[in-house]
């Protein structure tokens, strides 16, 4: 973990020595106050956990980007979601598309901003811009204006894979996991997308929480691969992860062990563990889930400066805190946890993983996806990015 620079001598100088001479009387009172005995300071309490039901407005745009209504589902249960894209999905000829990049927004539901981040990457890679389709779906909130008739969720429930709301003027409820299923299946269309070879599903923050759980639980990855479509997942700075055993990082940093249920009785319940998995998951055995997840192509991106334990949007429930104090700590612990699980048993489980710490970047999707490793995770090996792009360090197995 990178440390902040030490304060300068000027910052450490006694307050009285920095006061103007003509304020000597005031300085005397200040000095007396500083030298007076004080009671031992109480432990500073952590702020209240972030209220995920709180409305977080999306930043304003000077020229709003138009979204497109995309209809998904099956006969008898059709629904629409808003999607930002770099092609007209209803009219354009997509036969030249070789890669689809799907980016999932965070808690602010600012899919247009995430689209902008992906589109900016393509400006540095004009050769890929010609055959890359960007899709930025929006998991709208029930109170969001301008999205009438679209599937909508209660605040941030979509990040856990939950159902959309049931309300007049809205389609029948559908889980956000099912939305991703239907979106991916819609791309498996050789008549419309004959050149398509790969799909990247990327998320940051709350979007990364959805993508990580989806990468573990979905059942469409295999069929897509059999149809010749390589599916890759990019998971950047989530607040928490879905663990596939009852173990969590030990407080002393020495391995993993079952967490104390007296501290957090529900620490292993979904969305943090595999107790009470959602109905969407057809597989419920921890070991089989891990072997399947290990075989999937996953890249973890962790912000080297995403290390504030009091960050306003950090999940501070006990189930999340059992995984570590910060997003960086939780992510690093989870990367090592997978290495530990993979090495167990008489035959090691192959891990298809790439894991990076993005130097100097905090909780910022542009900095993460615009980094050297972020650009290559989204657009493939050799992808270019801006001159000020953050460098990345590979996160190796502990001890190597």
TrEMBL record:
| Protein's name according to its UniProt entry | AB hydrolase-1 domain-containing protein
Q: What residue stretch is flagged as signal peptide?
A: 1-42
Annotated SUPFAM superfamilies: alpha/beta-Hydrolases
Keywords, sorted A to Z: Signal
Q: Which domain of life is it from?
A: Bacteria
Question: What InterPro entries would the database entry show?
Answer: AB_hydrolase_fold
């Amino acid at each position: 973990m990178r440390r902040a620079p030490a304060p300068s001598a000027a910052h450490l100088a006694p307050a009285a020595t920095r006061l103007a001479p003509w304020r000597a009387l005031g300085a005397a009172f200040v000095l007396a106050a500083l030298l007076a005995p004080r009671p031992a300071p109480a432990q500073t309490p952590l702020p209240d956990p972030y209220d995920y039901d709180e409305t977080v407005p999306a930043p304003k745009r000077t020229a709003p980007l138009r979204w497109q209504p995309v209809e998904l589902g099956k006969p008898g249960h059709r629904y629409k979601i808003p999607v930002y894209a770099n092609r007209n999905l209803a009219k354009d000829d997509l036969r030249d598309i070789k890669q689809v990049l799907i980016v999932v927004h965070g808690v602010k539901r600012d899919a247009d901003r995430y689209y902008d981040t992906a589109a900016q990457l393509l400006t540095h890679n004009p050769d890929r811009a010609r055959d890359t389709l960007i899709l930025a779906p929006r998991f709208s909130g029930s109170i969001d204006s301008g999205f009438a008739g679209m599937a909508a969720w209660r605040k941030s429930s979509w990040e856990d894979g939950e159902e959309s709301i049931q309300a007049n003027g809205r389609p029948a409820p559908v889980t956000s996991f099912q939305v991703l299923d239907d979106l991916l299946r819609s791309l498996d269309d050789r008549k419309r997308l004959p050149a398509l070879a790969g799909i990247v599903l990327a998320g940051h923050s709350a979007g990364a929480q959805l993508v990580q759980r989806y990468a573990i639980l979905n059942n469409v990855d295999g069929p897509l691969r059999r149809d010749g479509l390589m599916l890759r997942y990019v998971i950047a700075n989530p607040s928490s992860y879905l663990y596939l055993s009852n173990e969590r990082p030990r407080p002393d940093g020495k391995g993993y062990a079952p967490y104390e249920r007296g501290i957090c009785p529900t620490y292993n319940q979904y969305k943090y563990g595999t107790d009470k998995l959602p109905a969407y998951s057809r597989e419920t055995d921890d070991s089989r889930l891990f072997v399947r997840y290990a075989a999937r192509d996953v890249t973890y991106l962790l912000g080297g400066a995403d290390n504030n334990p009091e960050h306003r949007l950090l999940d501070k429930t006990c189930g999340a805190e059992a995984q570590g104090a910060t997003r960086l700590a939780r992510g690093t612990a989870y990367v090592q946890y997978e290495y530990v699980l993979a090495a167990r048993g008489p035959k090691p489980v192959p891990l298809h993983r790439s894991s990076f710490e993005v130097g100097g970047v905090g909780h910022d999707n542009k900095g993460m996806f615009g980094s050297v490793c972020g650009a290559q995770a989204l657009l493939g090996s050799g992808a270019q990015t801006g001159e000020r792009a953050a460098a990345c360090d590979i996160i190796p197995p502990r001890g190597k």
